[in-house]
Amino acid sequence: MIDIEDLVVRRGTTEVLSGFSARVAPGESVRVAGPNGSGKSTLLRVLAGLTAPDSGRVTIGGRPPADPAVRSVRGYVQEPPPLYEHLTTGEQMEFTAGVWGVRPQEIRERADALGLAERLDVLVGDLSLGQRKKLGHVCATAHEPRLILLDEPFNGLDAAAEDAVRADLARWRSDGRTLVIVSHSDASVAGLVDRTLMTRARTETDA
Ligand SMILES: Nc1ncnc2c1ncn2[C@@H]1O[C@H](COP(=O)(O)OP(=O)(O)OP(=O)(O)O)[C@@H](O)[C@H]1O
Predict the structure, then answer these.
(1) What contacts 164, CB < 8 A, 6 or more positions away?
(2) 3-state secondary structure of 106
(3) 3-class DSSP state of 170
(4) Which Gene Ontology molecular function entries are recorded, alphabetically (predicted)?
(5) In the predicted structure, residue 205 carries a pLDDT above the cut 70
(6) How many angstroms is it from 78 CA to the middle of ligand 1?
(7) What per-residue confidence (pLDDT) applies to 206?
(8) 25-53+61-202, what's its fold?
């Protein structure tokens, strides 16, 4: 599903990823771990088609990540979640449902499971950080894509919401979806991943 060969990404004068290579098979679930600043989120942005590699080869199902054909098969649970501040929570769900061609009710049901039922009329800009995280999670995965990229999916969630997100991940995994999960916490993803890909801290000798 995912092929990464000798990926190099520079940010300013820093080489954040220096020759990162990995393969993820269809239906595999992998954790991405590594020190702060070692390029985990950057790697997800490359897979999401939002950051272009400086060199190397990255494909998803044989296509470049930015290929429009990849969009419908990929979901990206971003940190922080990209949401429309000036919409209400319910309107944000309806907007997302329209984009992906799913019924708003399907998004609302998943949001209810995360404890957002009481927040439908509240502006997204007035949600707490944890509530925004929950809304971002359901909106980014509304189309139940074959490949789901998640950046710290449990950060800032209460225990009940963490359980609900874990249940989503377990369901997607048993459905044979491919998961790439950036997570600092080994315990949070226990039983949900097949293996861990490590990003590497840069040292002075890399400079
Ligand atoms: N747009 C940008 N401009 C300049 N530097 C950037 C940019 N985005 C990321 N970086 C730098 O790239 C490096 C890697 O960042 P990234 O967020 O990918 O790391 P990470 O492994 O996800 O970190 P963390 O564990 O802290 O979330 C950091 O040093 C960061 O400051």
Answers:
(1) 113, 114, 115
(2) helix
(3) helix
(4) ATP binding
(5) no
(6) 14
(7) 56
(8) Rossmann fold (3.40.50)
